[in-house]
Design goal:
single chain, 294 residues, mainly alpha, 55% helix, 0% strand
Length: 294
């Protein structure tokens, strides 16, 4: 007769490792839950629907101008609204608030606030502030053609004729855009009677501006299918000769611009005319090119 195996008997159970309940912690949790429940019930009677909507113009508070990031954001909202009002008194308030955010260094402000400051100073007819904001924006000129045009307008408004060309020449690093060409054409036209080098540059800039004006003189959604014959640049070879024969030393002294900015602007204008003053590479010669050129 076969024996029946018996299941192994369980040994003594191991002691439990669970922490003993803490009456104090349980009491704190219950009290917290009670406070939350009470706040929910109280909110059902105290919270009104209009509290869900931010009041218009909340950022126009007089005490918001300050150095913190939150203050700067509020001032950016308020100053933009004041500039759009196109009122000299409101614009003057915007200038004061932006200065309060800047502290000792105006150039430490973000590009958006500097741009608003330039526009506000011009509307407020504050020539000193217009020049101050425009100069503080110098590091942004090359990458922001729109800001360069605004700063050029500010310099021209303040009577700084030659300095008004500096932002425009610096912005050619991003391309030869018609609004920049048109502004530079106007600035050089006012100063070209005294220096041959300035007159030569003005001739080139005017021709380029006129060749690109066609795109800005037609409606955005025009149904006109005619060719853009008005955008053809005539006499580009003669214009290149004129550009490359400019006395750069005389031009730099007349405009007061630094050599690197001037050389970069003239090189960009030369490429816009379809040529370069540099020698063409020999056949088979390897030439390093940047991403923009490729």
């Amino acid at each position: 007769m076969s024996s029946v195996e018996q299941p192994p008997t369980a040994g003594p159970s191991a002691p439990s490792t669970a922490p003993a309940p803490d009456p104090a912690a349980e009491a704190r949790a219950e009290a917290r839950a009670a406070r939350i429940a009470a706040a929910v019930e109280r909110g059902k009677t105290e919270y009104q629907s209009q509290h869900a909507h931010t009041e218009r113009g909340w950022f126009l508070d007089a005490d918001l101008a300050g150095p913190s990031k939150k203050d700067r954001q509020a001032v950016e909202y308020a100053s933009t609204l004041r500039v759009l009002a196109n009122d000299p008194e409101e614009a003057a308030r915007a200038v004061a608030d932006i200065r309060a955010c800047a502290g000792p260094k105006l150039a430490s402000l973000a590009r958006d606030l500097l741009t608003t400051g330039v526009r506000a100073a011009v509307i407020a007819k504050d020539k000193e502030a217009a020049v101050e904001f425009a100069r503080a924006s110098k590091k942004h000129w090359a990458a922001n053609p729109g800001l360069a045009v605004e700063c050029s307008n500010a310099f021209a408004f303040a009577g700084e004729g030659t300095e008004s060309t500096h932002p425009l020449l610096a912005s050619f690093g991003q391309g030869v855009h018609y609004p920049v060409l048109a502004a530079l054409d106007e600035r050089l036209g006012a100063a070209s009677a005294t220096e041959e080098a300035v007159r030569a540059l003005a001739e080139v800039v005017h021709a380029l501006a006129m060749s690109r004006a066609w795109a800005f003189s037609r409606p955005l959604y025009s149904t006109d299918k005619s060719t853009r014959s008005s955008g053809i640049l005539h006499g580009s070879s003669a214009l290149r000769d004129t550009l490359f024969s400019i006395d750069r030393t005389a031009l730099r002294q007349a405009l007061g611009v630094d050599p690197s900015t001037l050389n970069g602007a003239l090189a960009r204008l030369g490429r816009a005319l379809g040529g370069s003053e540099e020698n063409e590479p020999a056949p088979g010669e390897r030439v390093e090119r940047g991403v923009r050129e490729l």
